[in-house]
Amino acid sequence: MLAVEVGKASHVGRIRRANEDALFVGSRLFVVADGMGGHAAGAIASRTALEVLAGLDRAPVTCDALRSQVVEANRAVVAYGRTHPEGLGLGTTLAGIALIAEDEEEHWAVFHVGDSRVYEVRDSVVRQLTVDHSEVQELISAGLLTLEEAREHPSRHIVTRAIGEWPTPALDLLVVPAVVGQRWLITSDGLTSEVTDDLISAALIGGNSATETAVELVRAALAAGGRDNITVVVVDVLTSMATAEATQSSTLRRSQSEVSS
């Protein structure tokens, strides 16, 4: 297994009264969920989904196991909505990375449902590896809307796929080699709807630690308006397990920040 360092930060934002985002940081699984639904149902949906997915962190992960666990997470969210009328219509996005073994080499499975995103940084090049499942993304892809226009479009928060639908929505999954020196950003749209990709890239390659970068990104979203909950997880791939054991470093170093306004 790779050794990683993780920074995470979350904020309710300047407009919302409750934080319906949730995150999970394990040893091989890292996920952000952005809940939706009235009467605090969004927070229940995001937490419920992550509680189910957390089971993947206790055993070797395969792509098939990941897909199956997402189906179980969806079933749990749907079941809550059916038995709690106040939670009718609840749902959540998911975005994350899971360490898998493929062809005897370590890879990351990058997965998502909805408009939470995953970015990879390798050799100082930042790439967005997920494509939003959203109405504005469909308009962008059709050439009817620019990225700048999408930030202020009235449909910018409408997703076309979410956990909490039946049948389970399709999970987008991409397998990427695990490389020492890699950096990952997993984030809810509270960041990406406020901060441009250029500013996100500058923060990611700015040389700060994972925690410092997570805090910097959340503060940037707050400074830009903070109209939504903001949650950020930054994962730095430090070294291989063999090297980590030789240097007596820990397999996982993690830290958390609740960013103050």
UniProtKB/TrEMBL annotation:
Look up the domain of life of the source.
Bacteria
Recall the GO molecular function terms of this protein's record: protein serine/threonine phosphatase activity
One matching Pfam family, short form? PP2C_2
What range(s) does the PPM-type phosphatase domain occupy? Answer: 5-237
Q: List, alphabetically, the PROSITE patterns matched.
A: PPM_2
| PANTHER family (alphabetical) | PROTEIN PHOSPHATASE
Record-given protein name:
Protein phosphatase
Q: Which organism is it from?
A: Nostocoides jenkinsii Ben 74
Q: State the organism's lineage.
A: Bacteria, Bacillati, Actinomycetota, Actinomycetes, Micrococcales
